[in-house]
Amino acid sequence: xxxxxxxxxxxxxxxxxxxxxxxxxxxxxxxxxxxxxxxxxxxxxxxxxxxxxxxxxxxxxxxxxxxxxxxxxxxxxxxxxxxxxxxxxxxxxxxxxxxxxxxxxxxxxxxxxxxxxxxxxxxxxxxxxxxxxxxxxxxxxxxxxxxxxxxxxxxxxxxxxxxxxxxxxxxxxxxxxxxxxxxxxxxxxxxxxxxxxxxxxxxxxxxxxxxxxxxxxxxxxxxxxxxxxxxxxxxxxxxxxxxxxxxxxxxxxxxxxxxxxxxxxxxxxxxxxxxxxxxxxxxxxxxxxxxxxxxxxxxxxxxxxxxxxxxxxxxxxxxxxxxxxxxxxxxxxxxxxxxxxxxxxxxxxxxxxxxxxxxxxxxxxxxxxxxxxxxxxxxxxxxxxxxxxxxxxxxxxxxxxxxxxxxxxxxxxxxxxxxxxxxxxxxxxxxxxxxxxxxxxxxxxxxxxxxxxxxxxxx
Length: 459
What we know:
- By secondary structure, this protein is α+β, with helices and mostly antiparallel strands.
- 26% of the residues lie in helices and 22% in strands.
- Strands 2, 6, 7, 8, 9 and 13 form a six-stranded mixed β-sheet that branches.
- Strand 20 (426-431) and strand 21 form a beta hairpin.
- The longest helix is centred in the N-terminal third of the chain and has 15 residues, at 97-111.
- It is globular and about 70 Å long.
């Protein structure tokens, strides 16, 4: 078993982030403009039970070094496109060109589609394969989770509670590995994970604005205000930790930052119903469509990062959906000018750590680095939008650059009774009759895949 884990670990590239999106309408292009071919026809009913042993055997063969041709050919010969989801899972961990080629050929036999027609294929067969499956919204079969679990738990046993919850609303088709392991450290543990995780920062030391002179005025922060108390979270610190749990104005908050989707959000975690302690939010190391899969350390419940809704575990059973508040993306200089009494995370986070000025080094500049499937073509995938949910439930996105330009010119930025206003160097959203609304920035591909029916302000 340890040998198997070592084999899988050897393919790891530490890539940060993720979230849990809902599917898009299946009529968009890829992020590179490629037109996906029509989805293959899917048979009705269960998968042939005789396929379960060879599917499980493929995990063993992957770990031991190579696929037996008869095993993979037996699976491909079933010509059931639903099996392509598991072929994609195997491809995520396949190391040798020969094994990768075998899996690509199996995909073609199962779906009738040659991935080599995709211009993105040379950059990554797994990304191309998974993009097709997501774009098609191809269904999985009833036993898919049970076959997928042993492969993933070989890599990280800490994910066992997620896979064990048969009633979870997790779409297992979308779940992939992000290159890191689960952050299961106890609340307040300042040490990094021994095996490598994205370590949350719990209760960081906060200083006054003068104590934040270490941070450049033109560098970005994520600002939150609770009961009149303002706190700034430096972007470079958030790029390292991607999750902060802290108390502001007597309220407990969890603040995830999905670097892959450009989205920092703030949740009040101290008002959930029932006998539960406030959730301690952590990064699982799993991704879904290039978005962070976060979970609660206390109950091992998975959350939808964009909505705050519990998808598994006791908190799902209790119907928990975390209350969200606004996050303003601004520069440190503009934020402290608007909020002179603000506090900011200390230079060392209060844990004696140093943070590079630019931890990601432009990693996301060329677009999503994990599979996202088809995209909404109304905006470029990495365009920043301010996302907000109107009181009537309508999701609305405001392109940030266009909104800023309009406001600077004295023009209103409104749609469906929602108004965007400039505030503290950033943007906020408010409703005509309901006051300020929770809002946050995100890349367009991320917001639109969570809210495929979003209304888009176009000036």
